[in-house]
Amino acid sequence: EPQVEPDPSKKTLVILGTGWGSVSLLKQLDTENYNVIVISPRNYFLFTPLLPSCTTGTIEHRSIMEPVRTILRQKKASVKFYEAEASSIDPERKVVRIFDNSEIRGDITETEVPYDMLVVGVGAENATFGIPGVREHSCFLKEIGDAQKIRKRIMDCVETAAFKDQSPEEINRLLHMVVVGGGPTGVEFAGELQDFFEEDIKKLVPDISDRFRVTLIEALPNVLPMFSKQLIEYTESTFKEEKINIHTKTMVKKVTDKAVEAEMTHPDGKKETVVFPYGLLVWATGNAVRPVVKDLMGRIPAQKDSRRGLAVNEYLVVQGTRDIWAVGDCAVAGYAPTAQVASQEGSFLARLFNNMAKTEALEEKISHLSSTLNLQPGNSAAVSREIEGYERQLRRVKNAKPFNYSHQGSLAYIGSDKAVADVTWFNGNVAAAGSLTYIFWRSAYISMCFSTRNRLLVINDWLKSKVFGRDLSRE
Ligand code: FAD
Ligand code: NAD
């Protein structure tokens, strides 16, 4: 029978977020050991690797969302879920302040949740580096709403460009899709856009389609800095064939409603200001620290030198605290902010917490048996043996190893049914690129941490868009 009221004999474990880190922890946690409370403004898990495919309708957005309540229903003991944002964490009083930021609100919109143990898995927000105009005029690509907004805007640009008597310059501007940031998010999105154009827009809006252009702007000398040199070259040459313009060594300085202003560094070191008029602008320049995390860092003296997130030790304990752990993009553990790292960190914490509960149970048994030892002298040999057995188990459980990340490789889709992959295979590194890699990319994502329902939905979407083309209706 699922227990509904919190059990006073158990510790309260509060988990913030329903992303890669928190959900992978939840999936493997023995929830019967704690009073578990999950708090997140999003009542679903989002499979981010396929988010770029939602921007063009290759995949429908609901196919990559997994309701958190479905995940919780599968747990042995009941878990409470509050759809709310954590606004602050007080490590002294051990409470989290939360508020309901959704459209429909009840009489109570703000309250406090006390914890004994806290896991912070709130992810990161989009970096803008304070560049003027970015927040007002560009689209990000992090949440499901972002992908929906982009999908609508692409079609709005196309329909507006097709409007009666539109001037050629205006058609050029409207059909110019600019992507800032040459990390995997920007590259995958540019690839998806190009596919959309080649496979659908060209056929359906032929009279203006030759004006459609994609430009990728990157401040560093090359795109995809985390991939090997040959894959960077492959990506850049594939983009050239696909007519995606790459501008490297180009740093965006300012954004207005219709144009991007950037500083381009020429090979001779000379700098030039260039203006890119755009119809759609997608901003993908990486992560910044969320306010709730920044606030917590400010309350912990040991975090005074942290900049990119909560510094954690090798057991993912937030430095300077005893009962707060952090996972994923909000934690600084020495790894890249990826889903792969976040999900391994979540699994690690699940094992750790399962072990902690076992340790406590064993310690209790041992102390109980030890106290009976004196009361039953006739039985003492048997009881001692039992105690020894439990102590052996305890040593095994207590011997928890620190977190150790195992890198499975990097994979990115680059459009035209091609992908690039740096994969670790039998301890060696394999760099692969092309269409076979793309098939590997697809099967890898299908087999990853995902429910059967979502797998079927994604396969169905892929087939549907191949057979019937993508849906151009602007919802
Ligand atoms: P998230 O998954 O972002 O989850 C954070 C959670 O916290 C969310 O549920 C959010 O709603 C919640 N939250 C936010 N604020 C609060 C608050 N104040 N209180 C409570 N909850 C809060 N990585 C890969 O390894 N491979 C890929 O192919 C890949 N592709 C990607 C594609 C895209 C388009 C993007 C944007 C990222 C991609 N990543 C990929 C990176 C990966 O998504 C992140 O590293 C990963 O999501 C981090 O997990 P997380 O749990 O830290 O945060
Ligand atoms: P990123 O940090 O990887 O890349 C952002 C890029 O933007 C950088 O190359 C940076 O030089 C550039 N940039 C910053 N400011 C700029 C400016 N003003 N003008 C021009 N360029 C500028 O960010 P991301 O691509 O959003 O990825 C975030 C994280 O998610 C990374 O850890 C990444 O590995 C992960 N991710 C992985 C995948 C994948 O594995 N397929 C896909 C998406 C994201």
From TrEMBL:
Residues 12-346 form the FAD/NAD(P)-binding domain. It comes from the Eukaryota. GO terms for cellular component: mitochondrion. Its EC number is 1.6.5.9. Keywords: FAD, Flavoprotein, Membrane, NAD, Oxidoreductase, Transit peptide, Transmembrane, Transmembrane helix. The keyword Membrane applies. Residues 407-471 form the External alternative NADH-ubiquinone oxidoreductase-like C-terminal domain. GO terms for molecular function: NADH dehydrogenase (quinone) (non-electrogenic) activity. It catalyses: a quinone + NADH + H(+) = a quinol + NAD(+); a ubiquinone + NADH + H(+) = a ubiquinol + NAD(+). Belongs to the NADH dehydrogenase family. This is NADH:ubiquinone reductase (non-electrogenic). It comes from Chaetomidium leptoderma.
